[in-house]
UniProtKB/TrEMBL annotation:
This is ATP-dependent DNA helicase RecG. Residues 36-138 form the Schlafen AlbA-2 domain. InterPro entries: RecG_C_sf, Schlafen_AlbA_2_dom, Schlafen_AlbA_2_dom_sf. Coiled coil: none annotated. The keyword Membrane does not apply. GO terms for molecular function: helicase activity. Pfam families: HATPase_c_4, SLFN_AlbA_2. The keyword Repeat does not apply. Gene3D superfamilies: 3.30.565.60, Schlafen, AAA domain (3.30.950.30). It comes from Paractinoplanes brasiliensis. PANTHER family: GLPR-RELATED TRANSCRIPTIONAL REPRESSOR, SCHLAFEN ALBA-2 DOMAIN-CONTAINING PROTEIN. Keywords: ATP-binding, Helicase, Hydrolase, Nucleotide-binding.
Amino acid sequence: MNEDDLDTLLENLRGHGADHLECEVKRARGGLPVTLWESISAFANVDGGCILLGVDEKSGFTVVGVDDPAQMEAQVAAVCSEMEPPVRAEIRTVRLEGRNVVLCVVPPVPRNQRPCFKRSLGPHQGSRVRVADGDRKMTDYEVAILLSNRSEPRFDVSPVPRATPEDLDQELLAAFLRRIRSTKETFGRVDDERALRMLNVLTSYEGRTVPTLAGLLVFGIYPQTFEPQLNVTFVAYPEAEAGAVGRFGERFIDNRSIDGPIPLMVAQCIQALKHNMKRRSIVSGIFRVDEWEYPEEVLREALVNALVHRDYSEMARGTQVQVELYPDRLVIRNPGGLYGPVDVSSLGTTTITASRNKVLLKILEDTPLGDGRMVCENRGTGIARMLMGLAEAGMEPPRFTDTISSFTVEFPNHTLLDQDSIDWLASLPIGPLSRSQMMALAMMRDGSVLTNATYRTLTGVQDSRTASRELRELAESGVVEQLGTRGSTTYRVISADHPGGLSEKDSGLANADLAVLKALADGPRSRAEIEMASGLATDPVHRALRRLRDGGRVRMLGKPRSPSAKWTLTR
């Protein structure tokens, strides 16, 4: 992080009026803040962040500096060493507005080493997590799940003492064993009970044979007899916000608790969704076909993922998988965040997978769902198939949110290839397009700038070489502009039909840039006036102004950070 980046960061903080998710400032005039360790722990337990010592938030982020930067650097390093695991932060003194400020850049701790906590306080009292502009003490559950993630969880093979083999559905077990014996020769030489023990469906407890939790969840006649909350709740809301009443005063359209073994819960939840979903016409090649608002295959993959990858530890067994259907989106939430080395940015672009419930996954791999298919493939392709199903339906990709205590997937109820987009695509001077290229162009038309990775995430194309070829074809057609080289290559659409009557020179600019140019068309404006005229928030306006300034499109009138400074067009 250089001084220009710090100047920009400081300007952002002043515009925002508070710290944010990735930066914490402290006045530090009276010495090292006693709460510094909390910010270090909080940043280390998420995606990292930076701390500025010598900046006063209460006086509008005034740079006050520190008296002895060398001593403060040493003190910060000592605090980092007091953490478990020790934090290897970048600590140095920088000059901001003529004063010495100590910068501490905290890297994220590897996921399998979290939580990062103050050693003298222990993990339950000394662990923090960054939330918005503050450092929050982790809950006992958050600490427990992070500690369990350091090793291989075995909650799915734990015995269910009150259950017996008679509590399992014998028909489901028979179908499962037939499948196993037809694909694995070893199990043809052992009896049923021995096979089920080898497959971790049954285990021993105090001299008795009882089902494992995984065996009960897959084959139980009614697993909720023993674990009442290990089910699915489904709610369909009339409005876009939970709790808002509909036209007739109703708080929800449908509200049900879905019980039974996992295969049955998946099937019944899909039925509930179909009962409350609408059908719409989508484009498939040159044809229009009727399809559910959300493709059935996508729903199945999302539900199976939620039930299979959720946390089954004792502390999480009181929390259900939650399915919420709104007019504008579908939300599926399960307890327990991502496990292992997988992070949100890599979902769907790699087959590398990690699961805290390996036995449950293994059993479901050979468990019929009821339509001839198995419940899951256990090949790390579930998210990729989900993305491909959405792409084929012309829909936006889902949004993933990973916290320590939960994982959420949100599906926007919006098709990219609507009639307006189809008409626009037909007007382009370009040859036949693949479905993935059509999806990408529709997204870029809305202002998105794509990379090879985001192209694959959006379209479901898994091969990086295929994505590069399709993007290159769009660039060679003259419809898309390629910027940068190799690892930093980005693509954006070139279009002359921008809003506001802007000139051909404005082709390819992001929507925020166009909105700022339009706001400045009538003369110089301050940044606050630009925000009001464009309808954009502070951060998008700041980024757009910086891009336009770097491109020679706008310039500042007055001194930087002056309240009277204004921006104007250079042409």
